[in-house]
Specification:
Helix 2 (29-41) packs parallel to helix 6, helix 4 crosses helix 6 (157-178) and helix 4 (83-104) runs parallel beside helix 13 (433-449). The termini are far apart. The protein has a single domain (5-182, 230-449), classed as TIM Barrel (Alpha-Beta Barrel), CATH 3.20.20.70. It is built from 13 helices and 14 strands. It is α/β, with parallel strands linked by helices and 450 residues long. The chain has helices at 5-12, 29-41, 48-62, 83-104, 149-152, 157-178, 199-220, 242-247, 278-285, 300-310, 330-343, 371-388, 433-449; strands at 67-72, 108-113, 126-129, 132-135, 233-238, 249-251, 258-260, 265-268, 290-294, 319-323, 349-352, 359-361, 367-369, 394-398. The protein has an 8-stranded parallel barrel with strand order 1-2-5-8-9-10-11-14, surrounded by 6 helices. The structure holds erythose-4-phosphate and phosphoenolpyruvate. Residues 74, 120-123, 356, 427-428 line the site of erythose-4-phosphate.
Length: 450
């Protein structure tokens, strides 16, 4: 702690005086106090300097010099913290990034929805089955999915598991990204299990051969920079559970500023972005790069108010607006927002989340999304930015490296009748690996055409 510690501590807890939406109702507040006191003493999961570095990288995105790829699970689950699952997700993001970097010739800032994405806001506080009403499942950090009173009761001990699961995941991600696995010469290896079974895998393989040739050429010319041998990869999640995020908020000894050291980047969700609420207040107090999800009801005035609250110094890279309008609305609603924000002189990073505005329930009862709607929203996003001369800064997607059947469509088409085969998400439907690669190729084309 520094000399500023006392005032920083009160700054860090200013959110406590405000209404906080979507918080679990813990039956035992003393147990919550004990867990958060312990968490406050645990080592940070990320270093504040890394958050600054990501802010710089996002600054390049805001200036139109780079593209953000942010993706990962809708909800991570404790029982999926395994080398296999983490590697599959990372591999998918690395492949998407290789496609975007090579095919669109743009530096890609890679940020996972990973190592902390354990909490979910819900539309309804309770769920009713056969006349029985229980609290909704809110992610593994809060309760368990099984439909029993015991499983659905919020348990603060789960926050401790969230911390340890995040630490284990981040540790392996750091190992993979700096220890050789993410070396660009591995572009084929990431695809090995995939190339024979999927059209997108084959398309990727052709691109990987071109990358190989380019690498050999550069090496022959004497260029073999360190950037080819490891990647910068950052972790992000929705800052939903403020007791957890506050316990992981520390004063940076270098600068005296507060950082939420649970992740490099945090975002505030569509359901918790009230301007007079606790989440925006919390985000305004930390120096991490922050995102705000903006749905179709967002007014330009609200967007300008977020800028004043979260980015008063107009620092490129500090604030990311993640729009999630739905394919049917983006072309009508986004232009006015971007126009007014741009006219104000602010330069947030503009990112498209083409998932959350395009969810519907199939006749089978599965929540799903059509790949074509996802694609159409991204297209609309590019069209709007092209028309206004602003930078389409990136995409934010829910995806997995596993061959799940949760979203319909894509090159290796999933039909509505296939959904039951591998529907494994803990909450919302994710793109599988093939659909994710399809999306990367199509986004690269859109970016090039821009
Ligand atoms: O991921 C986003 C939300 O948590 C999710 O869409 C909420 O889902 P629900 O409408 O089923 O509660
Ligand atoms: C809940 C999420 O999204 P939104 O806040 O946009 O609904 C999410 O990204 O997990």
């Amino acid at each position: 702690m520094t000399v500023n510690a006392e005032s920083s501590t009160s700054t860090a807890s200013s959110w406590r005086d405000l209404p906080a939406a979507q918080q679990p109702e813990y039956p035992d507040s003393e147990a919550l106090r004990e867990v958060t006191a312990d968490l406050a003493g645990y080592p940070p999961l990320v270093f504040a300097g890394e958050c600054d570095q990501l802010r710089d990288r996002l600054g390049a995105v805001a200036r139109g010099e780079a593209f953000l790829l942010q993706g990962g699970d809708c909800a991570e689950a404790f029982d999926q913290v395994s080398a296999e699952h983490i590697r599959a997700k990372l591999k998918t993001l690395l492949q998407m990034s290789a496609v975007l970097t090579y095919a669109a010739a743009v530096p890609v800032v890679k940020v996972g929805r990973i190592a902390g994405q354990y909490s979910k806001p819900r539309s309804k506080a309770t769920e009713v089955r056969d006349g029985v009403e229980l609290p909704s499942y809110r992610g593994d950090s809060v309760n368990a999915p099984a439909f029993t009173a015991e499983a659905r009761t919020p348990d603060p001990e789960r926050l401790r598991r969230m911390y340890h699961s995040s630490a284990a995941t981040l540790n392996l991600v750091r190992g993979f990204t700096t220890g050789g696995y993410a070396d660009l010469r591995q572009v084929h290896a990431w695809n090995q299990d995939f190339v024979r079974t999927s059209a997108s895998g084959q398309r990727y393989e052709a691109l990987a051969r071109e990358i190989d040739r380019a690498l050999s050429f550069m090496k022959a010319c004497g260029a073999d920079p360190a950037e080819f041998h490891s990647v910068e990869f950052y972790a992000s999640h929705e800052a939903l559970l403020l007791d957890y995020e506050a316990a992981l908020t520390r004063v940076d000894s270098r600068t005296g500023s507060l950082y939420d050291v649970s992740a490099h980047m945090i975002w505030i969700g569509e359901r918790t972005r009230q301007l007079d609420g606790a989440h925006i207040e919390f985000a305004s107090r930390v120096r991490n790069p922050v995102g705000v999800k903006l749905g179709p009801t967002t007014t330009p005035e609200e967007a300008l108010a977020y800028i004043d609250r979260l980015d008063p110094d107009r620092e490129p890279g500090r604030l990311t607006f993640i729009t999630r309008y739905g394919a049917g609305k983006i072309r009508d609603l986004l232009p006015e927002l971007v126009e007014k924000v741009t006219a104000s002189g602010a330069r947030p990073v503009w990112v498209c989340d083409p998932m959350h505005g395009n969810t519907f329930e199939a006749a089978s009862g599965h929540k799903t999304r059509r790949f074509d709607d996802v694609l159409d929203e991204v297209k609309g996003f590019f069209e709007v930015h092209k028309a206004l001369g602003t930078h389409p800064g990136g995409i934010h997607v829910e995806l997995t490296g596993d061959d799940v059947t949760e979203c319909v469509g894509g090159g290796d088409e999933i039909f509505v009748d296939d959904l039951h085969q591998r529907y494994e998400t803990a909450c919302d439907p994710r793109l599988n690996r093939s659909q994710s690669l399809d999306l990367a190729f199509l986004v690269a084309e859109m970016y090039r055409d821009q």
